[in-house]
Design goal:
This protein is α/β, with parallel strands linked by helices. The protein has 2 domains: 232 residues, Aldolase class I (TIM Barrel, Alpha-Beta Barrel), CATH 3.20.20; 66 residues, Alpha-Beta Complex (Type Iii Antifreeze Protein Isoform Hplc 12), CATH 3.90.1210.10. It is 30% helix and 15% strand. It contains 11 helices and 12 strands. An 8-stranded parallel beta sheet has the order 5-4-3-10-9-8-7-6. A two-stranded antiparallel sheet has the order 1-2. Strand 3, helix 1 and strand 4 form a beta-alpha-beta unit. The longest helix has 18 residues. The protein is elongated. It starts with 9 loop residues before the first strand and ends in a 22-residue tail after the last helix. The model has no long low-confidence stretch (mean pLDDT 95).
Length: 357
């Protein structure tokens, strides 16, 4: 493990990634553009309008991902899979983002004030993205064990985001070691559950602070669950990066549409994760400055009917009520059965000067 001290602050494209900054929200386009450049551009525009800080593509071809065969192992056989029966090759053909789109989509995202980068799935894709001057690289969960790919990406002198779905501690350690030995110190690890969609019960967000302490890295969540609950909760556990798949309309189709957020949901994610981050604050007792005025609406001891000089103070002429300008309720037992020193009008805040022996 690599717990060597405080986690270093990472900057991606001028944006600080740390627990001292609002969560960095990445909208993953994946193949939800359904091979329409216009749809891809519309997705980027909608992500920007929703407040996402970055868009992410995936950079591969079917040939760089797998072999064009339909033998056992090359066809998805899990009956509960969204892609049951499809060959890997045909699926990646369907989902791939054409290389010739990358430059245009990156430039469009930047023109809207967002960062834009991608996940390379082979070493040639790393070089291709580097030539487009991406601000960082993202390694997908299934590629975390591709040590040559990590070495290649880490050697480009840019921050490296790595998802950790399915990975054991030793596999994560090897990936982190490889990146560091290749010269990359700006590493972000994302907790991830590699099912599509993922169930909350399998998400295990408690792993997030352990990842941070075990590897001395910035951490986040690559989230495949429905909705935003898991993502918001992750912020309380230290996630400074949230990655979510994005689609214009789940009913409109797209390879990952079933577990992707629509624009209004993405907007809510941006707002609520920032609220969660703002709410963390520090260990604090005794109230904040903002609460000072509210203290007057605590309870205190008041005279509940006119009291004559020398009259005994008792529950029939005193009452604990709001506001808090009288003696505190903790003095109730001490004032009972004492004598009034003067005439006290109903509604008077009781003070020690009203009380004799």
């Amino acid at each position: 493990m690599h717990n060597t001290g405080s986690v270093r602050t990472i900057t991606i494209g001028g944006r600080e990634i740390s627990r001292d900054a609002a969560p960095f929200i990445i909208a993953e386009l994946s193949g939800n553009h359904s091979h329409s450049l216009d749809t891809a551009r519309a997705m980027i525009k909608a992500a920007a309008e929703s407040g996402a800080h970055a868009i992410k593509l995936q950079t591969y071809t079917a040939d760089s991902m797998t072999l064009d065969v339909e033998e056992a192992g090359f066809v998805i056989e899990e009956k509960d899979s969204l892609w049951y029966g499809a060959s890997l090759y045909s699926l990646y053909q369907q989902a791939a983002t054409p290389y010739e789109w990358h430059s245009e989509l990156f430039d469009y995202a930047k023109s809207l004030g967002m960062l834009a980068f991608s996940s390379p799935f082979d070493e040639a894709a790393v070089d291709f993205l580097d030539e487009l001057d991406v601000p960082c690289f993202k390694i997908a969960s299934f590629e975390l064990t591709d040590i040559p790919l990590i070495r290649k990406a880490a050697g480009k002198g840019k921050p490296l985001i790595m998802s950790t779905g399915m990975a054991s501690l030793s596999e994560i350690e090897l990936a982190v070691d490889t990146a560091r030995h290749a010269g990359c110190e700006d590493i972000i690890l994302l907790k991830c559950t590699s099912t599509y969609p993922a169930e909350p019960v399998n998400t295990n967000l408690t792993t997030i602070p352990h990842l941070r302490s075990a590897f001395n890295c910035e951490v986040g969540l690559s989230d495949h669950t429905g909705g935003i609950g898991a993502a918001v909760a992750s912020v309380a556990l230290g996630a400074s990066v949230i990655e979510k798949h994005f689609v214009l309309d789940r009913n409109g189709g797209g390879v990952d549409a079933a577990f992707s957020l629509e624009p209004q949901e993405l907007s809510t994610l941006v707002i609520e994760t920032e609220r969660a981050w703002q709410a963390l604050g520090e260990v604090k007792y005794g109230g904040t400055l903002a609460e000072d005025k509210a203290k007057q609406y605590r309870r205190s001891i008041y005279v509940s009917r006119d009291i004559q000089p020398g009259e005994t103070l008792a529950p029939d002429n005193l009452k604990i009520v709001r506001p808090a300008f009288g003696l505190a309720p903790k003095h109730w037992d001490a004032v009972l059965h004492k004598k009034a020193t003067r005439h006290i009008k109903k509604g008077t805040a009781l003070s020690w000067e009203h009380i004799g022996e």
